[in-house]
Amino acid sequence: VHPNVSQGCQGGCATCSDYNGCLSCKPRLFFVLERIGMKQIGVCLSSCPSGYYGTRYPDINKCAKCKADCDTCFTRNFCTKCKSGFYLYSGKCLEKCPDGLEANNHTMECTSIVHCETSEWSPWSPCMKKGKTCGFKRGNEVRVREIVQHPSARGNPCPATNESRKCIVQRKRCQKEGKGKKNREEKRKKSNKDESKETRQESKGRAARRQNREQRENNNKTQPKKRKAPNKEQDLAPVDTAH
């Protein structure tokens, strides 16, 4: 250690020197040596940098280097992340994954092989031909299933998700498209037309009766009242001329 030891240090150092940097750290900080060219300088950090792991002792907390193939580690013999070209498995960095496992190039880990899984088959569809269920004797029916688990890179691939087979149906004539609907529409229009016709006839009848009634009333108003015939006995009575 360089003899020029100072107590008034910066950057978390408890003691330091102009030549070696930090010689000891304040509580809870980690001491680590950083190489600058041919020279090593002591620094004090709150956590260890990449490629190092921290150890705590009563007198000093130190950062020690991980194994050469580790990028980060929990201890020297337990890696948590590997450097490029290695795959992590159980705290170790391997160039090749063990049997039964496969390399995951996304996470750079050795993972279990996953095989494809599918659901149960659906029921067979109705027998059809060219999208129709009538007008033919032989057709096809199909069934399907879904993929519920996609395979990993080395897993068993997925089987077919649909099947088709020949089928025979009882021959029947197809109802023309829209014929039933057209007939119902025509019947509805005819019914509406008949109802409208009856309504018009009833309206005409009521109007005619009202017109006849009004005509009779008008005739009664315009025709002069008949005068009562004079009583012949009264007309023949003698006239009193005594006065």
UniProtKB/TrEMBL annotation:
<dbReference type="GO" id="GO:0005576">
    <property type="term" value="C:extracellular region"/>
</dbReference>
<dbReference type="GO" id="GO:2000052">
    <property type="term" value="P:positive regulation of non-canonical Wnt signaling pathway"/>
</dbReference>
<dbReference type="GO" id="GO:0016055">
    <property type="term" value="P:Wnt signaling pathway"/>
</dbReference>
<keyword id="KW-0716">Sensory transduction</keyword>
<keyword id="KW-0325">Glycoprotein</keyword>
<feature type="compositionally biased region" description="Basic and acidic residues">
    <location>
        <begin position="175"/>
        <end position="219"/>
    </location>
</feature>
<comment type="function">
    <text>Activator of the canonical Wnt signaling pathway by acting as a ligand for LGR4-6 receptors, which acts as a key regulator of angiogenesis. Upon binding to LGR4-6 (LGR4, LGR5 or LGR6), LGR4-6 associate with phosphorylated LRP6 and frizzled receptors that are activated by extracellular Wnt receptors, triggering the canonical Wnt signaling pathway to increase expression of target genes. Also regulates the canonical Wnt/beta-catenin-dependent pathway and non-canonical Wnt signaling by acting as an inhibitor of ZNRF3, an important regulator of the Wnt signaling pathway.</text>
</comment>
<dbReference type="InterPro" id="IPR044004">
    <property type="entry name" value="TSP1_spondin_dom"/>
</dbReference>
<comment type="similarity">
    <text>Belongs to the R-spondin family.</text>
</comment>
<dbReference type="InterPro" id="IPR009030">
    <property type="entry name" value="Growth_fac_rcpt_cys_sf"/>
</dbReference>
<dbReference type="InterPro" id="IPR000884">
    <property type="entry name" value="TSP1_rpt"/>
</dbReference>
<feature type="region of interest" description="Disordered">
    <location>
        <begin position="171"/>
        <end position="243"/>
    </location>
</feature>
<dbReference type="GO" id="GO:0005102">
    <property type="term" value="F:signaling receptor binding"/>
</dbReference>
<comment type="subunit">
    <text>Interacts with the extracellular domain of FZD8 and LRP6. It however does not form a ternary complex with FZD8 and LRP6. Interacts with WNT1. Binds heparin. Interacts with LGR4, LGR5 and LGR6.</text>
</comment>
<dbReference type="GO" id="GO:0008201">
    <property type="term" value="F:heparin binding"/>
</dbReference>
<feature type="domain" description="Spondin-like TSP1">
    <location>
        <begin position="116"/>
        <end position="170"/>
    </location>
</feature>
<dbReference type="InterPro" id="IPR006212">
    <property type="entry name" value="Furin_repeat"/>
</dbReference>
<keyword id="KW-1015">Disulfide bond</keyword>
<dbReference type="Pfam" id="PF19028">
    <property type="entry name" value="TSP1_spondin"/>
</dbReference>
<keyword id="KW-0358">Heparin-binding</keyword>
<keyword id="KW-0677">Repeat</keyword>
<protein>
    <recommendedName>
        <fullName>R-spondin-3</fullName>
    </recommendedName>
</protein>
<feature type="domain" description="R-spondin Fu-CRD">
    <location>
        <begin position="11"/>
        <end position="110"/>
    </location>
</feature>
<dbReference type="InterPro" id="IPR043601">
    <property type="entry name" value="Rspo_Fu-CRD_dom"/>
</dbReference>
<dbReference type="InterPro" id="IPR036383">
    <property type="entry name" value="TSP1_rpt_sf"/>
</dbReference>
<keyword id="KW-0732">Signal</keyword>
<keyword id="KW-0964">Secreted</keyword>
<dbReference type="InterPro" id="IPR051514">
    <property type="entry name" value="R-spondin"/>
</dbReference>
<dbReference type="Pfam" id="PF15913">
    <property type="entry name" value="Furin-like_2"/>
</dbReference>
<keyword id="KW-0879">Wnt signaling pathway</keyword>
